[in-house]
Design a protein that fits this description.
The complex is a heterotrimer. Chain A is mostly helical. Chain A is built from 12 helices and no strands. Chain B is an alpha/beta fold. In chain B, helix 2 (about 35-50) runs antiparallel to helix 15. Classes of the chains: A mainly alpha, B alpha/beta, C mainly alpha.
Chain lengths: ~290, ~425, ~280
């Protein structure tokens, strides 16, 4: 094994070098920038200002709303996609004859870009002429909402559109996962007198856990970087009272509209730190789990 | 012999082409004009340029989206990366000055102004906004007016109304209309700049042109009673606005006027171009309430970046943009008026002729929402304030944020 | 499986409801793309077009040269020139990385995997400026190869993840057997891994194709001249900053999405198979 270590390393080297520069090098540059006073396109005397960009950030009402929105978004988007995906996969797995057709329909949203999805959902969520009209016509008036125009809803509406776009992906993952469970397990359970619900709870769900874990990583990274979808739905201003605003959008506006480059860098670093706190333990835990199996 | 002449003709053609190519450089123009009248106007300018300077290849590097937000991001990335275009669209006033001039990216254009006598042709109000440190930094292609009241003629006739001159008149009209189920005032602030735009007309109407101008120099106090009254008036106006304003962009708000669902719309004169494009003629216009005698101006201008790769061709472009021929070709298509005061009114539609008249006599003030009055970071802070105010109508909080924005911009002290 | 017809009825009902959920936004896009400019408006979004018109599709594709509006057609090839090499290279790198990290675990390989994976999480808006500077230094700025490089680099984390999970399924015995036969790291790759790679490759290819084809941010920043820009930038430019022809926008969105839609329609089955092969450990 040790002999091959060198070759293995060499094979990984190109990727490692590229990531070292384009990810970690840039993160370092961003970090340096966030500690300076470069809040204009050209600053004659560049100097370190410590954490003042960060302090300004946490006093800005918009940033605090953004952090809350990211949390809300993740709490709807990730479980929503997982649950909807699982439900869809269970339905598809029953062996219906039109499975291929339904599956294609469920996967189609994934093919669209967030921008296109956003344009369609922005229209759908227009409070006077979109889905609300249909709900009224069907007698489902209680489902009406102001969607992204209602500050109390805001980002939740964006999360709905995101669930629409990506639940097809989780559905495909779960479908594959369900198919991989050997039939023999279910037969054994039936012999033991287990109900379908018990079979689901004690066989299906646990065996789908690795699928869930890998889906969460992918959905999670989308959650943290969500940008195009917010702009396409709620506009570049992040919705009324920033109810749909997210850190990535605030960062974009701060850097490229207000020319506050160092402050924008501070937002990025805060995001990355948050990500590290969440992702690193998670990855550690899921990899440990894998090794243990 | 015919063959001989034919061959000679072909050879001559090649020679001329070769000469043209030999003369040719390139010209890269950066803007966010990608469709409609704006693109048509830009294209017309390109055509005239090609006639005057054949052999120059024109690259149209336009990026659409978000009232220029995409384009500005790309432009800044390019400029900071050391790849400037030959000339780029930028709003006159502090957007240009504080973003690009004080930071040392632009070349002064005094030579051009002297050579073409532009100081005699552009009004004083505009020359003031184009100047910094005693030099001129860009050439205005057009002028748009921000403080216009547009109204649906049918509705006004039905209720026997006339365009309101004061805020009292506005509110009494609004009450009457609201009771009858008509939206008094249309608003589309999916891009919050539209609310900032409306607010700036209220600032002008409440503080007057001199008071308004003083906001940007520190002379008018943001924490004062004038701004407070403006915020209160604005809050009251928002009571008469369509409830789905956060879902509509400015042109979708205009649709409410076209469909007869809303009566009035206080917005810039690109609304006129929208009516014409949608072939709607049942509208009238007047200065926004409280804004009589004031021209709230914004302008798209072009400057000369220091490291422009094709400096000669860029200067030719600027000459064209500032010329009578260029402005008369561009503006009727774009739907704006010339920055020059000597353009031929007959080329323009009725609204634009009205605007051209006013341009000569009204007091000119710089638009806030469109980059003339305040630098970009200041405007961003004001936009943030509007985002919160339009929803929570908290006058004290808004006034506080506005005052702080002025301090952060380095203009006020408290 | 003995199941009552009532059961099937429920299943079909549920599937149809789900299908409606997924199709409603697409309906809005299609229906409004088929209208003409004056008919299309937010108020009437549900109504079928009064007269079917493919004019907006034509305008979206060909643009309106007389008025200076460029269409999508010119940029379609740019996207192809971008996607093909970018997908091939990023999938290749991901495959090799995934293989090494899954089958040749040495001390520190988990850490290296972390480090590679973390790259997925940076918001791309924050690295635009240094990215441009680096690409300029490499003389790749403003070119499609520069854009390809960008997408390859930022695609490494996800393709590595996909392949690592996939190759982890391959039984150790196969690798050991090949080693006994004298194969080293690369030999095992060629003789054992590669032949089994199809399903995992399908997943990676579909994912990367979608991401890269639909990318806007890198496209608009890195390829700054209109003749090299991908189709997403052209799509964005169908919207004027002032006047938006919604029917043309939606038609354009559908046209730009067509390649990826077709990929999913035809490869959907293999996508599932690929995920199946790379999922739960038995």
């Amino acid at each position: 094994m040790r002999r091959y270590r060198r070759v293995a390393f060499l094979l990984l080297a190109p990727s490692l070098l590229l990531i070292a520069l384009f990810v970690y090098g840039f993160i370092a540059w961003t970090g340096w920038l966030s500690l300076t006073n470069q809040n204009d396109l050209f600053v004659p005397h560049v100097r370190f200002v410590g954490l003042s960009n960060y302090l300004r950030l946490f006093h800005h009402p918009r940033f605090l709303i953004d952090l809350k929105n990211t949390l809300t978004f993740s709490l709807i988007f990730i479980p929503g996609s997982l649950v909807l995906g699982l439900v869809g996969a269970l339905l598809l797995n029953t062996g219906v004859r039109a499975e291929g057709l339904f599956r294609t329909v469920f996967l189609m949203p994934m093919a669209l870009s967030f921008i296109v999805t956003g344009v369609a959902w922005r229209w759908l969520m227009n409070p006077t002429s979109g889905l609300n009209l249909i709900f009224d016509a069907l007698g489902l008036g209680f489902l009406k909402s102001g969607w992204y125009t209602d500050p109390a809803v805001g980002i939740k509406a964006v999360a709905l559109a995101a669930v629409w776009q990506l639940s097809g992906y989780t559905m495909a993952l779960y479908l594959a996962g369900l198919r991989a469970i050997p039939q023999v397990f279910y037969e054994a359970a039936e012999v033991d007198g287990a109900s379908p619900w018990q079979a689901f709870r004690y066989i299906t769900l646990p065996l789908l856990t690795p699928v869930t874990l890998s889906a969460v990583i992918v959905l999670g990274h989308i959650s943290l970087k969500i940008f195009d979808l917010v702009i396409a739905i709620a506009g570049i201003s992040g919705g009324p009272a920033f109810s749909s605003d997210v850190p990535a959008l605030f960062m974009f506006v701060t850097t490229f509209q207000a020319n506050r480059f160092a402050q924008g860098a501070a937002i990025s670093i805060v995001l990355l730190v948050l990500v590290s706190f969440l992702v690193i333990p998670y990855l550690y835990w899921s990899l440990r789990r894998e090794v243990a199996e | 012999m015919k063959a001989g002449r034919w061959i000679a003709g072909v050879l001559l053609g090649f020679a001329l082409a070769g000469l043209a190519l030999a003369q040719g450089g390139k010209l890269e123009i950066f803007s966010w004009w990608t469709t409609g009248g704006e693109a048509a106007g830009l294209f017309k300018l390109f055509e005239i340029y090609k006639q005057k300077h054949p052999g120059v290849e024109i690259i149209n590097a336009a990026v659409a989206g978000g009232a220029g937000s995409n384009a500005k991001a790309v432009l800044k990335t390019r400029m900071l990366g050391g790849d400037p275009p030959d000339s780029f669209q930028v709003h006159m006033g502090h957007e240009l000055i504080d973003t690009w001039v004080t930071t040392g990216f632009m070349e002064p254009l005094d030579q051009l102004y002297r050579e073409y006598g532009w100081e005699k042709v552009f009004p004083q109000g505009v020359l003031e906004l184009l100047k910094w440190n005693g030099h001129y930094w860009s050439v205005p292609a057009n002028i748009h007016r921000a403080n216009v009241l547009w109204y649906n003629k049918a509705i006004f006739e039905k209720y026997g109304l006339k365009p309101p001159k004061t805020y009292e008149e506005f509110f009494s009209i609004a009450e009457k209309l609201k009771k009858d189920g008509i939206i008094p005032l249309a608003l589309g602030d999916n891009g919050i700049w539209a609310s900032t735009h409306l607010f700036e007309t209220v600032l002008i109407g409440t503080l007057g042109p001199e008071g308004y101008k003083g906001l940007w120099t520190g002379r008018t106090v943001w924490r004062g009673p004038g701004v407070k009254k403006a915020l209160e008036t604005f809050a009251r106006m928002l009571d008469y606005v369509n409830p789905d304003h956060a879902a509509r962009s400015w042109d979708q708000a205009n649709d409410l006027i076209i469909q007869g669902k809303a009566a009035m719309y206080i917005h810039g004169d690109w609304v006129n171009a929208d009516y014409l494009a949608k072939k709607f003629s049942g509208y009238g216009w007047a200065p926004a309430p409280g804004n009589y005698g004031v021209y709230d101006a914004l302008s798209d201008t072009f400057g000369l970046p220091k490291k422009a790769p094709h400096r000669k061709e860029a200067i030719w472009w600027l000459e064209l943009v500032g010329s009578k021929e260029g402005q008369e070709a561009f503006n009727p298509l774009k739907g704006s008026i010339c920055a020059r005061t000597d353009c031929d009114p007959k080329l323009f539609n009725p609204y634009l002729q009205w605007a051209m008249q006013r341009w000569k006599t009204d007091t000119i003030v710089p638009s806030l929402a469109h980059g003339a009055a305040a630098k970009e970071s200041w405007l961003a802070a004001i936009n943030d304030t509007m985002s919160l105010f339009v929803t929570n109508r908290n006058v004290a909080q808004a006034q506080n944020m506005l005052a702080q924005a002025c301090v952060d911009a380095g203009v006020c002290t408290r | 499986m003995r199941r009552r017809p009532f059961f099937w009825l429920l299943v079909y009902l549920a599937l149809s409801l789900l299908a409606v959920f997924y199709l409603v936004p697409i309906y809005v896009l299609v229906v409004n793309a088929l209208k003409d400019y004056r008919e299309v408006s937010v108020e009437a979004m549900w109504r079928l077009p009064a007269h079917l018109s493919l004019a907006s599709f034509a305008k979206a594709w060909f643009g309106d040269p007389a008025s200076g509006m460029t269409g999508l057609g010119q940029n379609f090839l740019n996207s192809v020139k971008l996607v093909v090499p970018a997908v091939i290279l990023s999938v290749l790198l991901g495959s090799i990385n995934g293989y090494v990290l899954a089958q040749w675990r040495f001390r520190g390989s988990e850490t290296l995997f972390f480090l590679l994976l973390f790259g997925m999480f940076i918001p791309y808006q924050s690295i635009l400026i240094p990215l441009v500077k680096v690409l300029m230094a490499l003389h790749l700025y403003g070119t499609i190869p520069g854009l390809v490089l960008t997408h390859v680099v930022y695609g490494i984390p996800i393709t590595t993840l996909i392949f690592r999970n996939y190759y982890a399924q391959i039984p150790r015995e196969l690798v050991d057997a090949a080693q006994i036969d004298g194969a080293a790291v690369l030999g095992v790759y060629r003789h054992v891994i590669l032949p089994l790679s199809a399903p995992g490759t399908v997943v990676a290819v579909i994912w990367q194709f979608t991401q890269i084809w639909n990318d806007f941010l890198f496209g608009v920043v890195i390829t700054n001249k209109p003749d090299v820009q991908p189709i997403t930038v052209a799509l964005n430019n169908l919207a004027g900053s002032f006047i938006v022809e919604w029917n043309v926008q939606m038609a354009g969105a559908l046209l730009a999405a067509l390649p990826t839609l077709l990929v999913y329609v035809f490869m959907g089955r293999y996508f599932i198979r690929g995920l199946l092969a790379g999922s739960v450990k038995g």
